[in-house]
């Protein structure tokens, strides 16, 4: 059986670290692509990573390039191309620059890897996925965004830190856009099977939810020169794994929702089953009244951003 071919567009912090996690888990052969102006940088990172293989013990071929010909017929393409935010910026401030980058990248992917699944990581996430699907024309189930795995991981980490338990025992779900309106769901959060609401009081949980919501900004404030990449890359590699190993993971992703949750044709974070056919199912839950209100607020924010992007690209 042939190895999966995984292309990562954008060999910066998130892209190169995603390549690292994918190679270390032997998910397939990896092509790391960046713009020609970066000259040999992707080649250097790829060669460096290859030289870790005898130590870590993985058999993945890793190619660094600026030529889309090397990405031909990829099974999965991850888009991390674009600028990250700096302190004082919101993800939405990246819209104008990254919409053009994601458009250009997707046109190339459409031409070179027509059967690929696309995982978008560039921000502002939900609008960028919408654009990648529109430009590629790929079936909506084969285009998705990474945000929920990361946001849930932050939420799970903070709960484990608070309770002094293993992160492995914390299970959680989170919905909505990748922004300040994201909706962590205490009703779907448990620790060793015990509802989290039985282990900590409501006000402490609300503080943790708020920290998870602002988790990206917290890292930006500490790094100062860019945004988070270790956890975002690990989250992206988990999605790649779900596809190339047909894992049928039930995880939160930015997925296309039309009738689902009454969203009406937008990408937004929802629980999905992720396997070799991409988003194989959007899992619909009965939301509480509060969750419905919060989710709708988040969907409205995503819609506003997509409209702003369409206007920008048309002007
Ligand atoms: N969805 C998430 O959870 C999440 C998490 C972290 C970062 N991000 C986003 O991911 C993006 C990348 O972040 P980063 O920290 O890796 O930034 P970075 O600056 O380290 O890397 C971005 C790379 O993209 C490359 N690039 C720019 N235009 C390109 C093009 N047209 N084709 C190919 N490559 C191109 C740049 O040369 C650079 O190497 C940002 O938009 C950031 O906001 C999203
Ligand atoms: O916060 C950012 O700008 C990057 C990313 O979306 C994150 O949540 O870490």
From TrEMBL:
Chain ranges of the Lactate/malate dehydrogenase C-terminal domain: 150-304
- Signal sequence, renumbered to the chain: none
Which reaction(s) does the protein catalyse, per the Swiss-Prot or TrEMBL entry? (S)-malate + NAD(+) = oxaloacetate + NADH + H(+)
Question: Keyword annotations for this protein?
Answer: NAD, Oxidoreductase, Tricarboxylic acid cycle
Domain (Lactate/malate dehydrogenase N-terminal) ranges: 5-145
The kind of enzyme this is, by top-level EC class, is: oxidoreductase
Please cite one Gene Ontology biological process associated with this protein.
tricarboxylic acid cycle
Q: What does this protein do?
A: Catalyzes the reversible oxidation of malate to oxaloacetate.
Q: List the PANTHER family.
A: L-2-HYDROXYCARBOXYLATE DEHYDROGENASE (NAD(P)(+)), L-LACTATE DEHYDROGENASE
- Alphabetical list of NCBIfam families matching this protein: MalateDH_bact (TIGR01763), PRK06223.1 (NF004863)
Family, according to the entry, reads as follows: Belongs to the LDH/MDH superfamily. MDH type 3 family.
Q: What is this protein called?
A: Malate dehydrogenase
Q: Which organism is it from?
A: Blastopirellula marina
Q: Which gene encodes it?
A: mdh
